[in-house]
Design a protein that fits this description.
Helix 1 links the parallel strand 1 and strand 2. It is built from 2 helices and 2 strands; from the N terminus they run E-H-E-H. Helix content is about 40%, strand content about 10%. The chain has one domain. A two-stranded parallel ribbon has the order 1-2. It is an alpha+beta fold and about 50 residues long. The radius of gyration is 11 Å and the shape is globular.
């Protein structure tokens, strides 16, 4: 069995780029966050790919 730790963005401040970088650098396997607005969906997806 393999445990994967996820990090919530609740209480964190900064842009998606800053948040995802901090979460990735800390070694988390994933992120829990609210769904982005339609205008930011592409940026959100690109950053998820970049920091996975």
């Amino acid at each position: 069995m393999k445990l994967k730790l996820m990090k919530s963005t609740w209480g964190m401040t900064g842009s998606y780029e800053q948040l995802f970088k901090r979460i990735s650098d800390a070694g988390y396997a994933g992120v829990e966050t609210s769904i982005p607005s339609a205008g930011r969906e592409q940026e959100f997806r690109e950053l998820l790919t970049k920091y996975q």
